[in-house]
Amino acid sequence: MIVHLIDGTYELFRHFYGLRSFNKGNDKPFGAVAGVLHSVLEMLENGATHIGVATDHIIESFRNDLWPEYKTGEGIEPVLKAQFLPLEESLAAMGVAVWPMVELEADDGLASAAYLAERDPRVEKVCIWANDKDLAQRVRGDRVVQIIRKGMQVRNAEAVRAKFGVEPELIPDYLALVGDSQDGYPGISGIGPTTAASLLNRYGPLESFPREKLGEQRERALLFKNLATLRTDAPLFANVDDIEWKGPTPAFEEWLARIDDKRLLPRCQKVVSAQTR
Question: Is the pTM of this model over 0.90?
Answer without folding.
Answer: yes
